[in-house]
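R.M. (postdoc): so does anyone remember the format we settled on? I'll just put the structure tokens first.
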């Protein structure tokens, strides 16, 4: 921009989120720089054609989201769960998938989040293996895949083939659609075991993920959608003082959930020879999420 001398102008636009980053820093120090103009305004002022009735409806639905998305306010109620730097350091550049390694056969685990069956997310699936460095247990991801708008039986078949390639014969399912998927996997010679995945136990599992990334004991794949979802994960404080962890409103966390489940299950099953995790809520035999 130096080519344009005093005529140079750099414009930055963003919806506020956490109290950090370039936009927040410049907003906080706007009175200290003569060469900086910061404009902060909400939807009602910038886009008058949006009806006040619609804005009020959004406010009532989620006041914190409304303050951030429609009033351009940096809020204290929500913050990024995982520092971007921890995620970046964990990524193996250029590695999207890894092949089966016989020496790790007893260390593999597979996980999936099939919430796409209920209409919004994708049916996502992943495989990882446990690593050891002295007494420290680590986790390395090997595969991440996702499906949308596909028949459930087709997806289960593809998952079964991937599990076969990694010598996996057990799969963990959560409570949603357990009986339905238990039967489908049983027909393919795979043992299905139920594992709880609810709002009550999601928070500690995601916090385990945060800790693993902070300690550098989890290696991620160069899978852009999963990395994007991990960066968007937020911790939201409820009126009762508890914390909810997940994607911001309007976003998805299906791949991020798979990564968290893999990390948790691999560390928990330190003596398990290999298993998988699947979270499912069936809907008329077909997938409705987006890839």
């Amino acid at each position: 921009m130096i080519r344009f001398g005093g005529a140079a102008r750099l414009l930055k636009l963003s919806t506020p989120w956490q109290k950090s980053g370039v936009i927040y820093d410049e907003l906080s120090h706007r009175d200290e720089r003569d060469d900086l103009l910061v404009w902060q305004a909400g939807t009602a002022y910038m886009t008058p054609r949006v009806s006040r009735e619609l804005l009020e409806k959004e406010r009532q639905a989620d006041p914190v989201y409304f303050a951030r998305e429609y009033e351009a306010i940096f809020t204290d109620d929500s913050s990024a769960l995982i520092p971007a730097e921890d995620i970046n350091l964990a990524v193996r550049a250029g590695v999207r998938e890894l092949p089966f390694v016989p020496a790790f056969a007893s260390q593999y685990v597979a996980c999936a989040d099939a919430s796409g069956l209920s209409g919004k997310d994708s049916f996502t699936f992943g495989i990882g293996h446990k690593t050891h460095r002295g007494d420290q247990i680590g986790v390395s991801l090997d595969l991440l895949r996702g499906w949308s708008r596909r028949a459930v039986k087709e997806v289960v078949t593809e998952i079964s083939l991937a599990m076969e390639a990694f010598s996996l014969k057990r799969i963990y399912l959560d409570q949603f659609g357990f009986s339905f998927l238990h039967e489908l996997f049983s027909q393919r010679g795979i043992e299905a075991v139920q594992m709880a995945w609810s709002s009550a136990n999601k928070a500690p599992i995601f916090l385990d993920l945060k800790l693993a990334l902070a300690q550098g004991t989890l290696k991620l794949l160069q899978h852009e959608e999963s990395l994007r979802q991990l960066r968007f994960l937020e911790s939201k404080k409820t009126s009762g003082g508890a914390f909810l962890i997940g994607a911001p409103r309007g976003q998805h966390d299906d791949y991020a959930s798979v990564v968290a489940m893999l990390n948790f299950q691999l560390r928990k099953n330190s003596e398990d020879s290999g298993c998988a995790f699947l979270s499912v809520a069936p809907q008329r035999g077909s997938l409705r999420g987006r890839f």
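R.M.: ...and that's the designed sequence above, right after the tokens. Also worth knowing: The chain has a mean pLDDT of 83. The radius of gyration is 22 Å.
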